[in-house]
Specification:
By secondary structure, the protein is mainly alpha-helical. It is built from 5 helices and 2 strands, in the order H-E-E-H-H-H-H.
Amino acid sequence: MQRKYLPFISFLILLILATPFESGFFIQNSVWNTSISTTSYLEIIVCFLISIILFTYWKITKKVNLINLNTFFAHFILTFPIVLYARLNLPIRVILANNSKDVLELIDLINIVLYSVLTMFFIGQLIFILYILKIKKASFKSF
């Protein structure tokens, strides 16, 4: 495998991991007369964003012969936690609920985890956008 296809294949695997396969299923509770969707909005948004990133890496691999692996690894490592958080949202909340003493502490723990994951994701996307701008600037100078 060539080095330039590593980002595309890695984010393809990340897209498969982020895809909400159980979308459309509902948990129905006959006692409370409610139905709870098994797919969260965060899962759908993350899947959409990862597909955009995958498409962008595909376009980059068609234009550029060599991908900067340091930038790619930083982007991948900072994007991976939001996929895990989106897919494992319920187990993370259960673990946090078991480790908290009251509801306010639970809300604080969930907010800490969510905001740290979102901050990492936005930093990774900023790195990715700066890398794209660097590639466009280099390709513009070559013409």
